[in-house]
Structure formats: structure tokens, C-alpha cells
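Service request form, structural biology core

Requester: graduate student, group of Dr. S.
Request type: structure prediction, single chain
Budget code: on file
Notes: please return the result as C-alpha cells.

Sequence provided:
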Amino acid sequence: MLEVRKKNLDRREWYSDSDRDFSCVYHKDEFFDGGIGLVTFTGIPKPDEVETKDGILCIADKGYQWLELAPKNGNYVLTAMFHGDELFQHYIDITLKNEVSENGDAVFYDLFLDVVLNEKGECNVIDTEELDEALSTGVISKADYDMAIKTAEEIVDFYKQKAFEIEKKLMEYRSLMIS
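Core staff response, request fulfilled:
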């Protein structure tokens, strides 16, 4: 059964404290206002791999990092995935809402729809069938559905226009978290 799920910026619903370290900060600048978290995988027992249209992709293993951005007044959470200094994927969860605390930690309510930017620079909207099912079964309202679609479209357009600037900012935020 589909449901809007509450998720944590530190991803505790998927990985235990022994699998990862987590730090967060509240950050505000001209580009972003919200929580920034850094998940560093330290003891993950085996690589976490997902199926993509290009084949199997390892998204988490010892030494990998996920830089998480949860905007205070936004309807998305961006996860920038790093292996060493290589940023290999941007995964953006479309959210019903984000609750960001003063220390930068956050929870968010996942609305099924996601945007993925792979290392080739291709931007894809995924899980549309889950969003459609959530609407047709009454899990979400038509307004929530429309907001999710609009947010995903805005993110794709923003990436098309500002991919270089986004990546530069993500590198800056990551260095802020590891210094």
C-alpha cells in the first residue's frame, strides 16, 4: 500500500548508526536556505546497488558520501552522491513538505516522484506511475499531485539552465561540511 512516508535527512530508515556517520548544519545564502546534511558511509556491510537504465549503479559503500539539502520552504530534498571527490548522481525526492530544525536536521514527506541527474548529465523524472497510483487511490490530493509535477518540471528546467552552478555550489557545501 502506498503512503506518504516521513523520512529523515540522516537516512536512518535505511542505514543504521553503525553503517554511517551524519552531521548537519542550517545554512542560508543567496542560493539556498535550509538544512544541509552529510552522510558518510563507514561500516556498510555490503555495497548498496540499484538498477538504472544504464545497468547496476553502486550508490552507497564504505567511504561514499551523500550530501543532503532540504530547503526550508521547498518541496524537494536533493541528495548529491559522491565516491571520493566524484559527484556521480543527483537524486531529488519531490516532497509534500520539509521540516527543518534550527541545527539543520530535517524530516521530509516523500511524494513518490523523483528527479535523477546521472553522471552523463541526463535529467530524468522517475516513479511517475507511483505518483499516478497515489492520486488514483486517494493517498494524495489533486493539488499535491499537481504540485509534485510542477516541482519536478521546475527542477528539470533549473538543471538545464544552471547545471554548472548547481554542481559548483554542491562542492562548496560539501567542503563546508567536511572542514
